[in-house]
From TrEMBL, chains A, B:
GO terms for biological process: endoplasmic reticulum to Golgi vesicle-mediated transport. Gene3D superfamilies: Trafficking protein particle complex subunit 3. It comes from Papio anubis (Olive baboon). Its main location: endoplasmic reticulum. Pfam families: TRAPP. It is found in: Endoplasmic reticulum; Golgi apparatus, cis-Golgi network. The keyword Secreted does not apply. This is Trafficking protein particle complex subunit 6A.
């Protein structure tokens, strides 16, 4: 179905457009970047932040639409499981591959073939290009969590394409 | 399904983002604008052109994915019918409501409830906001046509929300 790829095409265009307007196209963002790490130029940081913000608002809106009325979110972990299944399927037509937690508010969500990284060659070749394809999705997770009443910090890292880890940190209040 | 609305959410964010960066936020784009008409500021024209370009590339990519191998495009009109059915369903989960032509290369495609305009109130109230929600789709049509081997000029007009007319002009070569 074309509508499955529509999101991916649009996301690609969005990333390309924001990068085209980068006022200071310096050296590539460092590998394994978490979105705002050193190595990125000011313009690139701004683009990442814009993408993250767009993802956040889309995540918020999606969070309101997903069929969560049947679920009783007794614990934080239930919410994270919901994101790994329902949200991921809604957006990427697949479930997250694994979810781990230290039971102290830190969760690591791993996707072994993250769809937005799949068009790139696997391995290390284009690793430095990865962060710009992750920022939107970090925002998406943060936005969905926000709608579900949880404030969080979401970062992503890639050790080898197309495997991707999203780290969700929920500060204890 | 959330993935149906995903494209719409993302499109909304994209429009908002491009407008936020409009360096010269002057008076609104004139009603019934064709994307590049008078009334738009330079920044707005640039944003419309950027949106149209993004739509074009997404349309090109989609044109390659749609199941057109079963269709024999003997005539231009067949291609336009294909866009009104298959492309529209793939992107908007509905068919175009009508297709008219003067049989001289001009086609008018009418959608009586264009999904990207639906979130806005119906009637005349937000008419001047409409052009920015049409530019991407104009590009989408032009891009899909391009993949199918037809060069075209695509413009859109709105007389009353959420009814929208896309005019496709195919210059005779």
């Amino acid at each position: 179905m074309a509508d499955t790829v529509l999101f991916e095409f649009l996301h690609t265009e969005m990333v390309a457009e924001l990068w085209a307007h980068d006022p200071d196209p310096g050296p590539g963002v460092s590998a394994g970047s978490r979105g705002e790490e050193v190595g990125a130029t000011t313009g690139q940081k701004m683009s990442l932040s814009v993408l993250e913000g767009m993802g956040f608002r889309v995540g918020q809106a999606l969070g309101e639409r997903l069929p969560r009325e049947t679920l009783a979110f007794r614990e934080e972990l239930d919410v994270l499981k919901f994101l790994c299944k329902d949200l991921w399927v809604a957006v990427f037509q697949k479930q997250m591959d694994s979810l781990r937690t230290n039971h102290q508010g830190t969760y690591v969500l791993q996707d072994n073939s993250f769809p937005l990284l799949l068009p790139m060659a696997s391995g290390l070749q284009y690793l430095e290009e990865a962060p710009k394809f992750l920022a939107f999705t970090c925002g998406l997770l943060r936005g969905a969590l926000c709608t579900l009443g949880i404030e969080s910090v979401v970062t992503a890292s890639v050790a080898a394409l197309p495997v991707c880890k999203f780290q969700v940190v929920i500060p204890k209040s």
